Amino acid sequence: MSAWQRGPFSPLANPAYRTLWTATLIQFLGMMTIGVVRGFLAFDLTESNTAVGGLFFAFGIAMFPSMFGAGVVTDRFSRKSVLATTQLFLAVQTLLFAILIIADLLEYWMLIVQSVLEGITVAFLAPSRQAMNGQLLAADNVGRGVALQQGSMG
Length: 154
Fold this sequence. Notes:
By secondary structure, the chain is mostly helical. Helix content is 84%, strand content 0%. Helix 4 (79-102) runs antiparallel to helix 5 (108-136) and helix 5 runs antiparallel to helix 6 (142-153).
């Protein structure tokens, strides 16, 4: 057994896990970018640092209570379906966000609504991704897979 197969990156030897990990990395890079853009837009629209903070507060305050139901949904439904649904919702939401920006129709309250919707969606997205580690990896590799997954989300 090579060092690669025993080391911290050993879950990446599994093709299905590697696909999930890569998709997670790309998707969370996009989400973090949108968060920064949303902050700049909030400041541009309001010239207020408080307005920027309000967006992040709206995201967090929406995500917190949603987490409790998200765990139940992840356990009761197909993790793949939950993951696909949340990804589709985020993609549609981002497309609508882009259309509003291009059409110059964006207002601050719309940024708040988007932050709330994204917070709720991420509450469902994250546990379904994490639960898939147990489905895709051998028991001795799940811990490493979770650590790698958390790294790609950060």
